[in-house]
Design a protein that fits this description.
alpha+beta; globular; Threonyl-tRNA Synthetase, Chain A, domain 2; eight-stranded mixed sheet; Ubiquitin-like (UB roll); 20 helices; BirA Bifunctional Protein, domain 2; 634 residues; RNA-binding; 4 domains; five-stranded mixed sheet
RNA sequence: GCCGAAGUGGCUCAGUGGUAGAGCAAUUCACUCGUAAUGAAUAGGUCGUGAGUUCAAUCCUCACCUUCGGCUCCA
């Protein structure tokens, strides 16, 4: 048989051979570092016996498939350790996830964080023993018998859900056996670096009606140094936490009196307004009109829009003069009413109506998270009313706009296409048409995307933009949603070239998504060190001694007159102390002024994280700052 | 909402069944200073809220509120 490797080379064997043995033939290092095999495109064990001509890829930890096998075996290792320490525990599921693994257990007695260390120690002990991992298969009925014999209620349920004729694979390492599709490592000895990271409750099968199990999260690496590097990344993320920086930099706050409702402090407001100035410039250039619609509207409107039926549990309800009203969770119905308030010609279309609207949504208390998940937020919303044949051009233009905005902040991003959810309105035919329209645009622009089955809005499919921040985390921000339903429900119309009434199509779209969340992401992306144009305080003037206070104040007023956001520190403190404080406040430029500067009409410039940058005259300084500020223009 | 953890001066955190401390910050004073912490003094807390146990509760018990880590959900 012929084995074709990834690099195109071919090895021939007279008899069937296991993937691991082929790896050993290629090099001992590969045999040692390989985690799994991909045979003819399918994920397999290294112990998989290749019997015919095949394409073979041997994957190591640096590939997704290799890491997956490694983490998956780590999950089994965790389960084995738990079995040793807590006899009688019941096992649910234990998959690999990004950056690690978890396993769900049903413990007889609750365990605490201090137990994790014990479990970790037991895991290390099993690793030292270097126990071989073996694979075998059983028929469905044999597997079921195994689960019943061991009183594994969750496994019984898992096996019962499989087809009758299914052959089920098992993995056994010493005294621990688990049913599992694999692939798995050859032996426990390969898992050199382990860290159990957290303990959490999780519902069986993710359904809140089911029993709550105990989930143990962990991460693992083939090398200790890789684990350390990962733990450092977690530390870095902690330092960047927008909740911590938001408080330290006095940007926003949360109060017990309004859980999930952010308060913006003066500096946070400067940030927000600067961001919105940029946003308005972009949208003016893309020919959007801006509107504003009420926060509270009659319940009848929400019944008409479908929100009452599909979105009610997230809405805040109130009454005015005995009539039921709801606080808007979305901006669209308001915009529909504006469109409807006038007669439109096909010549008006596409009509791009933007609204930075404040929406309120009742989120469950457990999901609130700083600015990332709040109960009141501003959406940089827009509704584009258009004809059927304008769909492609308009969607394309929105894709360009979002791309431009993300690039402005140096974000990379990827795109997902979400299709019809179960709870939705409209006909299959319209959903197909809308979904195809979106995918056609992505195909035309050659933008790769993954499909998110059943994750669309209740009124239409959507393109989601997931941006990636400076330390590699992704966040969903922009979306483009195509809607045939709302225009019909609101009986929108325009007069076509033929003089007849026609139904317009609507695009709902956001670029930032939520201004609040976007600000949270920016804080973490920049670690609080905003680019000059966006920084709430751009310049801080530090006087060396009281003798130059007057000059320092002159510099301040000159900067302010020129539209620079400047602060001054003329306290009776040493210059080193003031410099330190200004750096910790993450102000982009510190201007040190002393006797020398006062006499020559200059300032000594210090750049955040870079140090001293020489002296400039006031005119030179203003030129420089104006140039920097213009980066905030679109 | 559910599981687990936490809540002590503006911030970070000690601490004890006999009504509380530290560092930073703040205020005042002295120093008048050249690029990441000058020194001293002062002030500031009914220990998240409510109830219970106790001679006595910040500490033990219960309920509630908020926050944190997850689950589910999501911009």
């Amino acid at each position: 048989m012929k084995i074709t490797l990834k690099d195109g080379s071919v090895i021939e064997y007279a008899a069937p051979k296991r993937a691991i043995d082929i790896a050993a033939d290629i090099s001992p290092g590969l045999a040692r570092n390989a985690m799994a095999a991909i045979v003819n495109g399918e994920d397999r064990d290294l112990r998989f016996l290749i019997e015919d001509d095949a394409e073979l890829e041997l994957v190591q930890f640096d590939s997704a498939a290799g890491a997956h096998a490694f983490h998956h075996s780590s999950a089994h290792l965790l389960a084995q350790a738990v079995q040793h320490l807590y006899p009688g525990v019941k096992f649910a599921i234990g998959p690999a996830i990004d950056n690690g693994f978890y396993y769900d257990f049903e413990f007889a007695e609750p365990i605490g964080l201090e137990d994790l260390e014990k479990i970790e120690a037991e895991m290390r002990r099993i690793v030292k023993q270097d126990i071989p991992i073996e694979r075998y298969t059983l028929s469905r009925s044999e597997a079921l018998q195994w689960a019943k014999d061991n009183d594994e209620t969750y496994k019984i349920e898992l096996i019962s859900a499989l087809p009758e004729d299914e052959t089920i694979s098992f993995y056994k390492q010493g005294d621990f056996t688990d049913l599992c599709a694999g692939p798995h490592l050859m032996s426990t000895g390969q898992i050199k670096a382990i860290k159990l990271t957290s303990l959490a409750g999780a519902y069986w099968r993710g359904d809140e009606k089911n029993k709550m199990l105990t989930r143990i999260y962990g991460t693992s690496f083939p090398k200790k140094s890789d684990l350390d590097q990962y733990l450092e990344l977690l530390e870095e993320a902690k330092k960047r936490d927008h909740r911590k920086l938001g408080r330290e930099m006095q940007l926003f706050a949360f109060m017990d009196e309004g859980p999930g409702f952010p308060f913006f402090l003066p500096k946070g407001m400067v940030l927000k307004n600067t961001l919105m100035d940029y946003w308005r410039q972009v949208h003016k250039r893309y020919e959007y009109q801006e509107v504003s619609t009420p926060i509270m509207l009659s319940q009848k409107l929400w019944e008409n829009s479908g929100h009452w039926e599909h979105y009610r549990e997230n809405m805040y309800i109130s009454q005015i003069d005995g009539e039921d009203f709801a606080i808007k969770p979305m901006n669209c119905p308001g915009s529909m009413l504006i469109f409807k308030s006038e007669q439109h010609s096909y010549r008006d279309l596409p009509l791009r109506m933007a609204e930075v609207g404040l929406v309120h949504r009742h989120e469950k208390s457990g999901v609130l998270h700083g600015l990332m998940r709040v109960r009141a937020f501003n959406q940089d919303d827009a509704h584009i009313f258009m004809t059927l044949d304008q769909i492609a051009d308009e969607v394309e233009q929105v894709v360009h706009l979002i791309d431009e905005v993300y690039r402005h902040f140096n974000f990379k991003y990827h795109v997902e296409l979400s299709t019809r959810p179960e709870d939705s309105m409209g006909s299959d035919e319209e959903w197909d048409r809308a979904t195809t329209a979106l995918s056609n645009v992505l195909d035309k622009l050659e933008i790769p995307y993954i499909i998110n089955e059943g994750d669309g809005a209740f009124y239409g499919p959507k393109i989601d933009f997931h941006l990636e921040d400076s330390i590699g985390r992704t966040w969903q921000c922009g979306t483009i949603q195509l809607d045939f339903q709302m225009p019909r429900r609101f009986e929108l119309e325009y007069i076509g070239a033929d003089g007849e009434r026609h139904l317009p199509i609507v695009i709902h779209r956001v670029a930032f998504g939520s201004i609040e969340r976007f600000i949270g992401i920016l804080i973490e992306h920049y670690a609080g060190k905003f680019p000059f144009w966006l920084a709430p305080v751009q310049v801080k003037i530090l006087s060396v001694s009281q003798a130059v206070e007057d000059y320092a104040l002159d510099v301040l007023s000159e900067l302010k007159t020129n539209g620079i956001r400047a602060e001054i520190d003329v306290r009776d403190e040493k210059i080193g102390f003031k410099v330190r404080q200004a750096q910790m406040e993450k102000v982009p430029y510190s201007l040190i002024v002393g006797q020398k500067e006062a006499e020559t009409g200059t300032v000594s410039v210090r750049v955040l994280d870079q140090g001293e940058a020489g002296s400039l005259s006031l005119t030179e300084l203003l030129d420089k700052l104006h140039a920097e500020n213009s980066r905030g223009n679109s």
